[in-house]
C-alpha cells in the first residue's frame, strides 16, 4: 500500500510525525499508534451527502492498547476490535442502526473516543463488518450479529445469536453476510432478514468464503474458485490453483494462487475486470494477517481435540514412539513407548516433575491404564486425539493432564459434559466423585437438580443409597442457589 495516497495523513502536523498507521478504515479515516496509545483520525461517512460528527483531529481511544488487539474490522461509521483474549470492543457513531451493539451510549466522553463492550456470553475468535452491522464467530461455532444490514431492515441494537450450527468461517459485505459450517454448507443472510442455505455439489468441498453484495465467492479444497449469484455455483475461470480468498467487506475481492500470483476484482465478478500482480504484500495487508491470533484459554469442542497443522507440530508428531534419538522409555502394562525427554518436559507438567526428580532413563507406568497413558503421550507429541467416548478413560486422562497448560484437560471436561444426559448423569457424578474431579461433580450435580423429576424415574436413581442421594441433592441445590421442594 502506498501510504502517500492516504490523504488523511497529510492533515497531521509535525507533532504526529512519529505516529504509525495501524489500520486504514478508508481514504478518509485511520487508526494511529503514538506512544503506545491508539488514536482515531479522520471522518466516517454514513452516505455520500452526510459526514459523521467525529472531528478530523486525532482523538485518543480510551483505555485501549495495541498489544491487546489481534484483529480490526470497520463499517461506514463504526469499527470493531478483537482482543487476544477473545473480547470485543466497538467504537464510532452510535446511530439508529445499533452498530455498536449497545443501547443509547455516547461516542465521545471528555474528548476521548469511547470503547463499548457488547455483552457476549462466549469467547470471540473472528469478526467482520458490513456498512452498519457486525458479525462475530465464537469458539463454540455460533454466529452473533448486531446492527442492521440495510436501511429499514430489522435492527439489532444488542448481539443476537443467529445460528447454533458449527460454523468455522464468516464473511461480510456492505449489506450481506455469510458463514461456512463444518459440513460444507454456506449460510447466507441478506437484506430484510432473508436467510438461505447454499449447498455445494457433492464433488465440491468448500474451505473458504468471501461475501459480496451481488455474489458469494468460495474456494474449494481442490483449490478452485467458484461464484454464487443465486443459481448454481459457477466456476471462475482463472489460471492456476488457489490457496487463499478474502474480501475487504466493501465488494473488493482478492485471491492468491499457489504460484504466488495475486488476483483482485470488484463484485460482481466479470472475466474482463480481474487484475493480477505478484505483489503478495498487498494481500497480507488486505487480510490483516500480520495481527496475532486469538489466544484461547479453553476451546469448546465435542468431537475431537486438534490444532491447525504446522511444520513443527508435524515433525514432532513423527517422533512419537520412535527410537530415533529416543533417550527415555515409558513402561506400560502392555508394552513400551520410546520417548524424548525434551519433548515430554516441555509439554507436560507431570513428566517435567518426574524427569527433574530422577535421572533414570526409564519411567514405570505399569500400574496406570495403558490406553490412558498412550492417549496422553500421543497428545504430547501430536496435539490431537481421535474422539474418546469412554467416560472413565476421559476422567483418568483429565487426572493425568490437569496441571498442563495445553487444551487436553479442557477437552476431557467438555467431552463428558457433551455426553451427559438424564440416563447417565448420576453415574457420571459418581465416577467424577471417585476421581475427585470437582469440576465435573459440580456440573453433574447441577444437571441432576435441574432434571430431577426425569432422573428420579431412571434405574440408576433406584440404586443410590439414601446417604449418596442426600449428599448429591444437597450439593446440587447449594450450587444452583435453590431450595429443595
TrEMBL record:
**Which residues does the UniProt record annotate as the domain BTB?**
326-389
- Pfam families cross-referenced by the UniProt entry: BTB, RCC1_2
- Spell out the Gene3D superfamilies in the cross-references: Potassium Channel Kv1.1, Chain A, Regulator of chromosome condensation 1/beta-lactamase-inhibitor protein II
Q: Which InterPro entries match?
A: BTB/POZ_dom, RCC1/BLIP-II, Reg_chr_condens, Signaling_Regulatory_Domain, SKP1/BTB/POZ_sf
Provide this UniProt record's keywords sorted from A to Z: Repeat
SUPFAM superfamilies (alphabetical): POZ domain, RCC1/BLIP-II
Name the domain of life.
Eukaryota
The family database entries (PROSITE patterns) matched by this protein are listed as: BTB, RCC1_3
* Chain positions of RCC repeats: 86-140
- Record PANTHER family: BTK-BINDING PROTEIN-RELATED
Protein name (Swiss-Prot/TrEMBL): Putative alpha-tubulin suppressor
Amino acid at each position: 500500500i502506498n501510504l502517500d495516497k492516504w490523504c488523511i495523513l497529510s492533515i497531521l502536523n509535525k507533532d504526529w510525525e512519529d505516529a504509525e498507521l495501524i489500520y486504514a478504515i478508508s481514504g478518509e479515516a485511520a487508526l494511529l499508534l503514538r506512544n503506545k496509545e491508539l488514536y482515531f483520525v479522520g471522518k466516517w461517512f454514513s452516505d455520500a451527502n452526510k459526514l459523521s460528527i467525529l472531528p478530523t483531529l486525532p482523538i485518543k481511544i480510551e483505555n485501549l492498547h495495541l498489544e491487546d488487539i489481534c484483529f480490526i474490522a470497520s463499517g461506514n461509521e463504526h469499527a470493531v476490535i478483537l482482543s487476544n483474549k477473545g473480547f470485543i470492543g466497538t467504537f464510532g457513531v452510535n446511530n439508529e442502526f445499533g452498530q455498536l451493539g449497545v443501547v443509547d451510549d455516547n461516542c465521545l466522553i471528555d474528548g476521548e473516543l469511547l470503547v463499548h463492550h457488547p455483552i457476549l456470553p462466549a469467547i470471540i475468535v473472528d469478526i467482520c463488518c458490513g456498512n452498519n452491522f457486525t458479525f462475530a464467530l465464537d469458539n463454540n461455532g455460533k454466529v452473533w450479529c448486531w446492527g442492521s444490514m440495510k436501511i429499514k431492515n430489522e435492527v439489532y441494537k444488542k448481539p443476537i445469536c443467529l445460528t447454533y450450527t458449527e460454523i468455522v468461517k464468516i464473511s461480510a459485505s456492505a449489506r450481506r453476510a455469510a458463514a461456512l459450517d463444518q459440513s460444507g454448507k454456506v449460510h447466507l443472510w441478506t437484506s430484510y432478514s432473508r436467510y438461505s442455505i447454499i449447498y455445494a455439489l457433492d464433488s465440491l468441498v468448500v474451505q473458504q468464503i468471501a461475501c459480496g453484495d451481488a455474489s458469494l465467492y468460495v474456494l474449494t479444497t481442490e483449490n478452485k474458485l467458484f461464484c454464487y449469484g443465486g443459481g448454481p455455483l459457477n466456476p471462475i475461470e482463472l489460471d492456476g490453483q488457489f490457496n487463499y480468498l478474502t474480501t475487504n467487506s466493501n465488494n473488493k475481492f482478492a485471491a492468491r494462487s499457489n504460484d504466488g500470483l495475486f488476483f483482485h476484482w470488484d463484485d460482481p465478478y466479470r472475466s474482463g475486470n480481474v487484475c493480477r500482480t505478484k505483489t503478495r504484500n498487498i494481500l497480507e495487508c488486505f487480510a490483516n494477517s500480520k495481527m496475532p491470533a486469538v489466544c484461547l484459554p479453553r476451546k469448546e469442542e465435542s468431537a475431537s481435540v486438534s490444532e491447525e497443522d504446522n511444520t513443527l507440530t508435524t515433525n514432532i508428531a513423527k517422533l512419537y514412539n520412535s527410537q530415533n534419538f529416543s533417550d527415555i522409555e515409558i513402561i506400560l502394562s502392555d508394552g513400551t513407548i520410546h520417548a524424548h525427554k525434551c519433548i515430554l518436559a516441555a509439554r507436560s507438567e507431570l513428566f517435567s516433575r518426574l524427569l527433574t526428580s530422577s535421572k533414570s532413563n526409564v519411567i514405570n507406568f505399569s500400574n496406570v491404564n495403558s490406553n490412558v497413558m498412550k492417549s496422553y503421550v500421543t497428545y504430547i507429541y501430536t496435539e490431537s486425539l481421535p474422539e474418546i467416548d469412554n467416560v472413565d478413560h476421559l476422567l483418568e486422562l483429565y487426572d493425568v493432564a490437569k496441571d498442563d497448560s495445553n487444551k487436553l484437560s479442557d477437552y476431557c471436561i467438555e467431552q463428558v459434559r457433551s455426553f451427559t444426559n438424564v440416563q447417565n448423569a448420576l453415574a457420571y457424578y459418581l465416577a467424577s466423585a471417585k476421581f475427585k474431579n470437582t469440576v465435573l461433580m459440580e456440573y453433574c450435580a447441577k444437571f441432576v437438580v435441574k432434571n430431577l423429576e426425569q432422573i428420579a424415574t431412571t434405574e440408576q436413581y433406584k440404586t443410590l443409597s439414601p446417604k449418596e442421594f442426600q449428599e448429591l441433592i444437597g450439593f446440587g441445590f447449594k450450587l444452583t442457589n435453590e431450595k429443595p421442594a
